[in-house]
Specification:
Elements lengths: L1 H10 L7 H16 L12 H20 L3 H16 L12 H24 L3 H28 L1
Helix pairs in contact: 1-3, 2-3, 2-6, 3-4, 3-5, 4-5, 4-6
């Protein structure tokens, strides 16, 4: 449900109202994707949940992309492409509409979205989790660089 709340607020450009959820979302997504020693990831059962979390992060990044953060826009389109491959939960329509997500990605960075869709299309289910974790690591590193740059000014 957290993912749906974040997606809905991002679509209405009101992420400020759910900032605590936005802050905890990356770590929650990493934990679900990576599993833990007492709960390893279930290959297929968790896929739609992982996808929903990835879509929520994508919408956060696409929102930041609208504000001029090109790295966030590229991260957002990669996350949309991955969320689709994870067959994210689409129970809450129109908020979780695949067409809405694709349109947001195309609008943000159409060629980058097409590249991401192509890059992830051939991945096996076993390769999707590491690919998603790599995008999250890149996203975190970019955020750390951005935070460091702000701290120095």
């Amino acid at each position: 449900m957290r993912a749906v709340v974040v997606v809905a607020h991002a679509q209405h450009r009101r992420l400020d109202r759910v900032e605590p959820l936005v802050r905890e979302l990356p770590e929650h997504a990493r934990a679900v994707l990576a599993g833990s020693p007492d709960r390893p990831p279930a290959p297929f059962v968790d896929f739609p949940v992982c996808g929903a979390l990835l879509l929520a992060l994508a919408m956060v990044d696409l929102d930041r992309g609208r504000a001029g953060d090109e790295h966030a826009a590229r991260s957002g389109v990669r996350l949309v492409a991955l969320a689709e491959r994870f067959q994210y939960l689409r129970n809450f329509q129109p908020t979780m509409s695949a067409e809405r997500a694709r349109e947001a990605a195309r609008h943000a960075a159409g060629p980058a979205y097409a590249d991401a869709v192509s890059a992830y299309a051939g991945l096996t289910p076993g390769e999707l989790r590491p690919a998603a974790l790599a995008v999250l690591a890149d996203r975190q590193a970019a955020g750390s660089r951005l935070n460091s740059a702000f701290a120095q000014t």
